[in-house]
Inverse folding.
């Protein structure tokens, strides 16, 4: 009677063209592990999802930052600038009309 050989289990194959499996064993101090676990709980996420999101944000691979609204000072400066340009244009046209022979 032949003995059946068990096939070794293979880890999931990485994506084609990638040499990274997406798995990472990381050692950290227990205090950091606890802080991350608490932060993940506060966010309502698994520890894995939380750490992945933090790393992606830190690495620039996360979602794009929210666009900031222009400041009130900048908006006021642009309006004043446009008003000054309009006044300068009116003065320039008036001088051309007066100087026209």
């Amino acid at each position: 009677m032949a003995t059946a050989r068990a096939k070794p289990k293979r880890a999931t194959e990485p994506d084609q063209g990638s040499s990274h499996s997406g798995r990472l064993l990381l050692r950290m101090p227990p205090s950091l592990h606890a802080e991350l676990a608490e932060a993940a709980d506060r966010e309502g996420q698994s520890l894995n999802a939380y750490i992945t999101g933090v790393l992606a944000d830190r690495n620039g691979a996360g979602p794009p930052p929210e666009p900031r609204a222009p400041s009130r000072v900048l908006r006021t400066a642009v309006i004043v600038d446009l008003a000054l340009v309009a006044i300068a244009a009116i003065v320039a046209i008036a001088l051309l009309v007066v100087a026209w022979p």
Notes: The CA atoms of residues 2 and 68 lie 71 Å apart. The two ends are 119 Å apart (CA to CA). The helical segments are 30-43, 47-59, 72-99.
